[in-house]
Amino acid sequence: MALAPLPIEVEVEPAVELLVTWEDGHRSRYPVYYLRGFCPCASCQGHGGAWNFHHIDAPKLTAIEEVGSYALRLVWDDGGTTHDTGLYTFETLRELCPCAACRAAQGETHPTARMPAALAPPL
Length: 123
Known about the structure:
Blueprint: E1 7-13, E2 17-22, E3 27-31, H1 32-37, H2 42-45, E4 60-67, E5 71-77, E6 82-83, E7 87-89, H3 90-96, H4 100-106
Antiparallel strand pairs: 1-2, 2-3, 4-5, 5-6, 5-7
């Protein structure tokens, strides 16, 4: 499996989205509810390997921490409860990219196929 490109810039609008610019020029826009819903931690995803979406009403992204040179830790406020156990590896972030090109490339294996259509980010 080829290594995912590395991010070269990460921007955030805490109540809205995370924007990642990758070294290959691709730009990914992640709504915060989407990233929180696909938190990769074991308590959210289990150990089965398939993506499960967990809708959280109005999550707040309160912090972003770099983890080595391979991941970001996103810290969430889920309405009074802090959730900070998910490490979003760069590979995971690229796999989660909700843009039309990434959805088309992954087809039915794209994570958006496993969430309610009404909640899927617009193309």
